[in-house]
Amino acid sequence: MSSTDGTAPPDRPADERTMDLGPVGHLGDRLFSGLARGSGGLVVLIVAFVGIFLLALAIPSLAKNDSNFLFSRIWEPGAVPPKFGIAALFYTTVVSSIIAMAIAVPIAVGVALFTTYYAPKRLAAPVSHAIDLLAAVPSIIYGLWGILLFAPLLRPVINGLGTALGWIPIFEKPPTDNVGVVFTASVVLAIMILPVVTAISREIFAQTPIAHREGALALGSTRWEMIRMAVLPYGRSGVVSASMLGLGRALGETVAVLIILSVPNGNDPWNSSIFAGGETFASKIANNAAEFDSPEKTGAYIAAGLVLFVVTFLVNSIARIIVDRSTPGGKRTRKVKRVGDKPQSEGATL
Amino acid sequence: MTTLAANRPAYDGKTLDLTGKSGNRAFKNTLASVLITLCFLVALIPLVWILWTVISKGYGLLADAGWWSESQRGITVRREGGGAYHAIMGTLIMSLITALIAVPIAIMGAVYLVEYGRGTRAARVVSFMIDILTGVPSIVAALFIYAVWITVFGFNRVGFAVSLSLVLLMLPVVLRSTEEMLKLVPDELREASYALGVPKWKTILKVVVPTAFGGIVTGVMLGLARVMGETAPLLILVGYSKNINLNPFDGFMGALPTMINQDRTELALQPAADRVWAAALTLILLVLLLNLLARLVARFSTIKSK
Lengths: 350, 306
Description:
The complex is a heterodimer.
Chain A: H1 27-64, E1 75-76, E2 83-84, H2 87-118, H3 121-136, H4 139-165, H5 182-206, H6 210-218, H7 223-252, H8 255-260, H9 281-287, H10 295-325, H11 331-334
Antiparallel strand pairs in A: 1-2
Helix pairs in contact in A: 1-10, 2-3, 2-5, 2-7, 3-5, 4-5, 5-7, 6-7, 7-10, 9-10
Chain B: H1 2-7, H2 23-62, H3 65-69, H4 85-116, H5 121-135, H6 138-152, H7 159-184, H8 187-195, H9 200-211, H10 213-228, H11 232-237, H12 256-263, H13 270-300
């Protein structure tokens, strides 16, 4: 029974009969820890491989590309020589996601506050489960519902905003009565990212130290003043990182956007208005899967996918860094000792 | 009371008077309550609306036994009939293979983070990469597998390729939830096991993982629910087939999302529209069922410390 490979701890008693720690460092342990380490390493490898493979397959096409990849709006990977640039894709992707975030974050914060500090205790859990169910609806169903049932409802909003603010290029009202526009996609994206932002904000808000809240109330605050002075400052960084995660999701959403956005004709001049159609990285790639027939063409789409990967990578990294930097509440509350707090588990709800 | 009132300094008009809620502050408070409640109601509208739409438009075909047992073989958009058996099986087969690959890696990865790597720099790198993987869009996962499976290795577009790309999406979900559950296992249990002379790997396998089992199952179900509804990888990595194909390594394969995608352009035709909504309802039922089961399992399997 005694282990002879010298891995026994140094403070092990000399009398092995009284304290045998078992076969320390034997095959089973080495194998098992190897498997565990390997699985951890595999995750790192996968992320690295995603970047490496996409880059490797994009480079040949990029080398042949006859137009500026970053600043051109042309997308003709089938031409000889191929011409493709991501400017238009980038614009639509970013604009639609940012509008989605602008709509979703305030509502999500409201919902999170409602479940943590307004809803009756008994209602709070079912209510948050109901909002979580929004995340369970498959995105293709959001797309169908979005374009068939929800979009017609947005027509007066689009017409109204287009008439009132049409002098700003981004709100310019297009001549057609089409509702499959960037704005519609943004609203549907907002609904889709709502549960993510809500879930994380809710967790952070719920952790506001009871001393802060009671302190505010003891000073005579109303419930809203308590939230504004104690809860919101405490949860600010959490909400920011939750929004970034929502943004990351909106940037990469494919099928809902694909179904909702009407693709402009190849000959149409480019339109910067959010009341016009367009294509995002993801919808462009998914829409043209049938075109992956030559390495050059495929490479062009893979290059677009690589840009999307890099953008989401950056956005998600920033979210993660914000979470890491700040035990919620940031500097102001760091000195306060929080008795009985559980260790932070960021991203637990993902 | 009289002494208190007497000792109270005379109000100088400058210090903040917090003795009552002035009209303005009370109004703001009420306004905030109303707005916040409104936020919640607004957020609920799409959920109710979507569920209502899909149920009311889709339930008709689901009552038909043929929906669950027949394929769409030979049925055109203008014709009624046929079922979703091919698509349901395709969805189930592809997600099952995904789970078979993703779950062991996820659990072992979580074991690494909690039992072996806790606090090390390497574990922080792994943890960071899991977050990044969580944020990888499904279309990028699909493109990556396309790049490896089809462009580099030259294989065909088959169901298995879809499963591979779904592994990338399911892995981080299961890993994170498993990690959370393993963290909750009280150290006393581990120490008791070590004290009995059980080696670490056996302790993990026989004590730690079984204790956290309920939570791990919850994570697996949530992960499955997430990948079942994914459409983008299906569009790129496998063709849609109306025939029954149960072999993930050969030929095109039907799946519920691609079945919806197939007929959605012909919604003006009643048979096609009926099938689209029925397929959507079937998909939602599968996904919601998994979600509800996950919650149920979670409720009955909380880890009791001590």
